[in-house]
Amino acid sequence: MSSTPRNPAAAPALGHSLKHLAVHLITPLLMCLGMALAYQGAFHQPEPHHLKVAVVGTTPQAQGLAQAIRAKAGDALDVRTLPDRAAAEQQLKDRDLVGAFVPDARSPELIVAKGNSDTSVVAATAVFTGVTDRQGVPLHVTDLTTPAKGDPTGQGLFFLLVALSIGSYASVAVIGAAGAALGMRIRALVGLAVSLVVSVIGIVTAGPVFHVVDHDAAAVWALGWLYSAGVVFIGIGLHTFLKKWTTLTMMVLFVMLNFTTSGGIYRPELQNGFFGTLHGFWTGAGFLEGARSILYFDGGAGLGGHVLTLVVWLLLGGAAMVAAALYERRGRRPLEAARSEEADVEAEEEMEEAVAV
Q: pTM for the complete prediction?
């Protein structure tokens, strides 16, 4: 009686394949966990935290109203009084206020700048609608900014940030892995060229295609190139040290922590302290708030600080590439590692495509 011959190598081969598969599944599963923690942590319960509003007027009634709102709201609102409408408008244009309430028995008014943040304006409007509802009169809202034709909510810039980010960090895997045999100087030049292309794609789609950017396109494009170059340079530098973990690291830095702290959906006054604090110096916030300053506040309202943020991140990318070049020059990155990275590029590219989709 004959029996089917067994292949003793089949079981070990199967075990090895499953182990190899499990190791490669770690990265997407960590991405899933990180995205869930970051997005739900940042956006699941938007509540005002020191939302800056003002009551306009020097009368005892205006002072009393401000005090009453302050006492009821606690830490949710930062309530101040301003002497006149001109002072209120100036602080709104400087982005030091979210809303300024002008009391009136018949026609109370809330002055806002939606270009700063539409969601923050909604929160401020809700506060003073409660006040006017008790008066039994409607609240008139005046917006000092003019939204772009293709961006009535002012959130289109956030989606421009998403496009720039994905184009930038997805290119890092290709430059770092497929270009591993190239010198760091060549990779840096390729990265600079790629960031230029990414920024051009971004401004063309946001400008003449969808009219999210309807003026000062050159200035917004320059911010986009500066932002993209910083992301790409950091990724190229990190790839030397992190290799196949570069994709996950870039996702953490430029998606999980970047999109959630950019202010594109909720600004810091509607987020918890962790994400609100990162907003002050994270690169995505530098681009987004800088673009808002250009488009809606005539290039003022802290534009210089936002540009400085982008420059600092670009310098960090330059420092990362210099460190990587020194590491490679000293022979601590053997040829076998470079070849291994090239073998991993296909898996990384597939992962990037899945994330982009």
A: 0.86
